[in-house]
Amino acid sequence: MNAIQVWSDLLCPFAHVAIHRLREAREELGIDVRLDHHTFALELFNGPHPRPGTDSEAVGLGQVAPEVGFRLWSQPDWAYPSTVLLAAEAVHAAKEQGLRESEELDHALRKAFWFESRSIGHRQVILDVATEVGIDSTALAAALDDGRARATMMADHAVAVTDAIQGSPQFVLPDGSSVHNPGISVRWEGPFAEGYPIAQNVDPGWAERLLKQAA
Q1: Domain DSBA-like thioredoxin: where (predicted)?
Q2: Model-wide pTM > 0.90
Q3: Exposure string over 151-162, b if 16+ CB within 10 A, otherwise e
Q4: Strands, E, within 110-175: which ranges?
Q5: Is 44 exposed, middle or buried (0-12, 13-18, 19+ CB in 10 A)?
Q6: Residue 48: which residues within 8 A CB-CB, separation 6 or more?
Q7: Which tens digits make up the pLDDT trace of 86-134?
């Protein structure tokens, strides 16, 4: 079965939109292509996740992708996940159970953060989310506790700092071609995290074309 590599950060609103649209198009087309998740860890470039920037991007993208259902963080500020490296590690570790399990965990973690304001950087939250989508959380806990996927995640970062990956999200196809943040363009009015992102849909057919090319 062919797979599309997905390079992204779990707290990236653009990645959330793009992955949602790719999964929806895959279901509509009935194309059997897996998503192979890789980590583009924004916090390893920029430090702890800046909530104002993430919130602003979500509000801006919510206007062009209302079907994704963004929700602003509704829990106490101290519960906001300033790091999601352990969650990204869990997505890698879940590949021991299969690409489908890894993909579903990634999807469920994004939903838990964006829809339910759950602190997905926390070990127990990660395991709870895994259980909810039918993943063997006992096996996943063992993988997290011995750190077996950490080197794989950091190997992704070694690739992410090169010119091979432009940012989150980026999709790499089996033929080696890739596309960064497809379907949406954005500009900022004012400084990042202080101003406002102006986003627009520019290519509604990108997901269908990408899936057909991958298949």
Answers
A1: 4-177
A2: yes
A3: eebeebbeebee
A4: 170-172
A5: middle
A6: 82, 83
A7: 999 999 999 999 999 999 999 999 999 999 999 999 999 999 999 999 9
